[in-house]
Structure formats: structure tokens, C-alpha cells
Amino acid sequence: QVQLVESGGGLVQAGGSLRLSCLASGRTFSRYAMGWFRQAPGQEREFVAAITWSASNTYYTDSVKGRFTISRDNAKNTIYLQMSGLKPEDTAVYYCATGFLTAAVFKGTNWGQGTQVTVSS
Predict the structure, then answer these.
(1) What are φ and ψ of residue 76, in 5° steps?
(2) CA distance linking residue 70 with residue 78, whole number of Å
(3) Each residue of 32-46: pLDDT tens digit?
(4) Are strands 3-7 and 18-25 parallel, antiparallel or unpaired?
(5) Separation of alpha carbons 27 and 46, rounded Å
(6) Of 101, 120, 116, residue with least CA distance to 47
(7) What is the DSSP code string of 7-60?
(8) Which residues, listed in sequence order, are joined to residue 110 by a DSSP beta bridge?
(9) Buried b vs exposed e over 71-81: b needs ≥16 C-beta within 10 Å?
(10) What is the tens place of the pLDDT at every residue in 76-120?
């Protein structure tokens, strides 16, 4: 199976920036689409961003468009989520996932343990 480990979470002030990383190991020869989800306390897990294996296409939920950028480095088996203009409502546990895209909708099938992002007002 694929093991995913997120890092880069922490505390940041509103308007600040943060970069999350997700390192994948095991079966990394597979051409997975990958993405990020997040879950705030008392909320359902929501999709944030996804990227194809070739990085030729990226997808974002409306609330983060223009502020977050997803990227990947297949040589390092790593994906990133560069977050800028952070808002308190971005506070959540962020999870990376491998999965697949169907009609531009990302379905996660393997998940990391998450990294906490807290944005203070």
C-alpha cells in the first residue's frame, strides 16, 4: 500500500502563508492523482485541491481558488499545498490522499494522518 505523511502544519496569523508537504512511500511507481482534504471540528471532511500525476491539471474548491496552489514533484514522491492569504476559516486538519479523478471530481482512496493548520485572527 501507499503510506502518506503530511508535514508543515502549524500556527499562522491571518493573511500569512504556509506550505504543506506530503511524502508518499510504497507503490510510488503508480501514477496516482493526489490531493488535499481538510476537516474542521464539527464539520465534514471537504475537498481542497487535487492534481493529476503529470501535473497537467489542477482542481480547487471555490473557497481556496487564488489563494492555494497544489503542486507535485514525482522525483521526490511529494505533493505540496502552498497556502497564502490564510483566513481563520482555513483552520482544520489537512489530509493528503492518493486517488483518482472522474469528470474532474477527486476521490481519495488512501489517506495520511493529517497535519493541523491553525490560523489566528
Answers:
(1) -100, 0
(2) 11
(3) 899 999 999 999 999
(4) antiparallel
(5) 26
(6) 101
(7) E--EEEETT--EEEEEEEESSTTS--EEEEEEE-TTS--EEEEEE-TTSS-EEE
(8) 98
(9) ebeeeebbbbb
(10) 999 999 999 999 999 999 999 999 988 889 999 999 999 999 999
Q: Which three cell numbers stand for residue 108?
A: 481519495
C-alpha cell at position 95: 489530509
User: In the structure grid, which three cell numbers stand for residue 28, read together?
Assistant: 510510488
Give the C-alpha separation, 58 to 97, whole Å.
Answer: 14
Q: Tell me how far apart the alpha carbons of residues 71 and 93 are, in angstroms, rounded to a whole number.
A: 19
At 59 the three-state DSSP class reads strand
3-state secondary structure of 89: helix
**Cell digits of residue 75:** 522525483
Write down the residue that cell numbers 474542521 correspond to: 40
CB proximity list for 72: less than 8 A, separation 6 or greater: 34, 51, 53, 55, 78, 79, 80
CA of 15: how far to CAs of 53, 72, 100, in Å? 30, 24, 32
